[in-house]
Design a protein that fits this description.
By secondary structure, the chain is mostly helical. It has a two-stranded antiparallel sheet. The protein has helices at 15-18, 25-42, 53-58, 63-77, 85-115, 121-128, 138-141, 149-170, 173-198, 208-215, 217-235, 244-258, 263-266, 272-287, 297-323, 330-360, 379-388; strands at residues 5-6, 238-239.
C-alpha cells in the first residue's frame, strides 16, 4: 500500500504551474529539528544515562536518514524539466562545497587539538573529495570532520539525480507505490545481510557490516529515492493519508523506538515511512496555507542554518571537549556547546554559504525557492490556491 493516497477529484500540477511551485517553509523548519537531533546524539556520552532520556537522544541517529529523504524530496519538488545536467550539478556544488571546504580546513587543527595529532593524509584527501564513505575503514569515513560522511552519500545522490528524475517523472501512481515499497524492503534486506555477515556484531563502527549498512552510499540511496517519489506524488495530485500532527507523533514514536537500537540495526528502514509522511504532511500544510510553527521566521532561519549547524557542531564539541575538565558540569558543557554551535553555524551560513553560493551558481538559472525564507510575491500563492484548491483534498500548501 502506498504511503500516499490519490484524491479522486485532485489533479496534478500542470507544466506551467510546476514552473512556479510555491515555497515550502515548513520543510525548512523541519531541517533544524533533524540537525538538532544529530547534535543530541553526539552529546549523548556527556549526559547521564537516564532511562527516558537515553533513547530520546539516541533517536538523533535517524536525523541523517531524514536528511537523505528530504534531499530527494526537495530536489524533485524544485525539478526543472528543461534543466541541464551541468546547471544542476553546478548548483549542487555551489550549495555544499564552500561550507564543506571551510569546515574541512577548520577540522584539521581541531583534530590536532582534540586527539593530539593531525589526521593522516588519506582521510584528509578522502574527506576533501567527498569519497570517504566508499572506503570501509572507520578512520577514513569518520575522519577529519566525522559528520561529513553523509555529504559523500549526498554527492553520489546528486550524481545520479539527472538519470533518476526522468524515471520518477514518468512513473504512474501504481509504479510509485511499488517503488516506495521496494525501497523499504531493500533497506530491510541490506540490514539483514549486514547482520548475517557480522554475526550480530553489526553495531561495531570498525566492522565491515557497519560500513555496508550505515555508510556505503549505495545502501543509503533508497532513502533518497523515496524522497524523490514522494515529492513527485505530491506534484501529481496525491497527498499523505494523515495530517502534520499525527505524522509528527508517529515520527517521534518511530525515532524513539529507533533510539533503542544501534544505528546500524535500524539503518533508516524503521523511520522511512514515518519521516516520509511527516515531510509530505508539512509540505501539504504549506500548500494549503495552513503553515504553523515550522513556518515561523525564527524556525525558517534555524532551518537555513541547519546545514552549517550540522557541519560545525562536532567541531565545536571537540574543541570544547579538549578544553573542558572531564566529567565536570556536563549540562553546562552541553549548553555552551549548543550556543557556540549556533554561533558557528550562523557565521558559516552568512559569511561563507550564502555569498559563495550566490557567486558560484549558474547565473542564467534562477535559484529555487523551496528552502528559502523569503516569501513569494503575494499574488503567486493566491493564484495557486485559487487554481488548485478549488478541488477538495488537493495538496495545496
Amino acid at each position: 500500500m502506498s504511503v500516499l493516497r490519490t484524491e479522486v477529484r485532485s489533479r496534478p500540477y500542470s507544466a506551467p504551474l510546476a514552473q512556479r511551485l510555491p515555497r515550502l517553509p515548513s520543510i525548512t523548519g523541519l531541517r533544524f529539528i533533524a540537525a538538532f537531533g544529530v547534535f543530541g546524539y553526539h552529546v549523548l556520552t556527556l549526559l547521564p544515562s537516564w532511562t527516558l532520556l537515553h533513547p530520546l537522544l539516541m533517536s538523533g541517529q535517524a536525523g541523517v536518514s531524514f536528511f537523505f529523504i528530504l534531499s530527494g524530496f526537495v530536489l524533485t519538488w524544485s525539478d526543472r524539466p528543461a534543466d541541464s545536467r551541468g546547471a544542476f550539478w553546478q548548483r549542487r556544488a555551489a550549495r555544499i562545497l564552500p561550507s564543506q571546504l571551510a569546515t574541512w580546513l577548520v577540522a584539521l587543527p581541531v583534530s590536532a587539538l582534540r586527539f593530539g595529532a593531525w589526521p593522516h593524509l588519506w582521510p584528509m584527501l578522502a574527506t576533501l573529495t567527498l569519497t570517504q564513505s566508499w572506503v570501509p575503514a572507520q578512520d577514513v569515513f569518520f575522519g577529519v570532520n566525522g559528520v561529513a560522511w553523509s555529504l559523500s552519500c549526498e554527492a553520489f545522490f546528486y550524481a545520479l539525480f539527472p538519470a533518476l528524475i526522468p524515471l520518477v517523472r514518468a512513473a504512474s501512481s501504481r509504479r510509485r507505490a511499488e517503488l516506495l515499497f521496494g525501497c523499504l524492503v531493500l533497506l530491510a534486506a541490506i540490514q539483514l545481510v549486514g547482520w548475517r555477515l557480522a554475526g550480530g556484531g553489526i553495531s561495531d563502527p570498525s566492522g565491515m557490516a557497519f560500513w555496508l549498512v550505515s555508510v556505503l552510499p549505495l545502501s543509503r540511496l533508497p532513502e533518497f529515492v523515496v524522497g524523490m517519489v514522494a515529492a513527485q506524488a505530491i506534484r501529481a495530485g496525491q497527498r499523505p493519508p494523515i495530517r502534520l500532527v499525527p505524522a509528527a507523533v508517529l515520527s517521534l514514536f518511530a525515532g524513539y523506538l529507533a533510539g533503542l537500537f544501534p544505528t546500524s540495526v535500524v539503518a533508516g528502514w524503521l523511520t522511512l515511512v514515518p519521516f516520509t509522511l511527516l515531510i509530505c504532511a508539512a509540505a501539504q500544510n504549506d500548500l494549503r496555507g495552513c503553515s504553523g510553527l515550522l513556518a515561523r521566521r525564527w524556525a525558517v532561519r534555524l532551518g537555513e542554518w541547519s546545514f552549517a549547524f550540522y557541519l560545525t557542531h562536532q567541531l565545536v564539541l571537540r574543541t570544547v571537549g579538549a578544553c573542558w575538565p572531564a566529567g565536570k558540569f556536563a549540562l553546562l558543557q552541553v549548553c555552551i556547546d549548543l550556543v557556540l554551535a549556533l554561533a558557528a553555524s550562523a557565521a558559516l551560513y552568512h559569511w561563507v554559504e550564502v555569498p559563495a553560493e550566490r557567486r558560484l551558481r549558474p547565473r542564467a538559472v534562477p535559484a529555487s525557492g523551496v528552502t528559502s525564507s523569503t516569501p513569494a510575491p503575494a499574488a503567486q500563492p493566491r493564484l495557486l490556491v485559487e487554481k488548485v484548491s478549488q478541488l477538495p483534498g488537493s495538496p495545496v500548501e
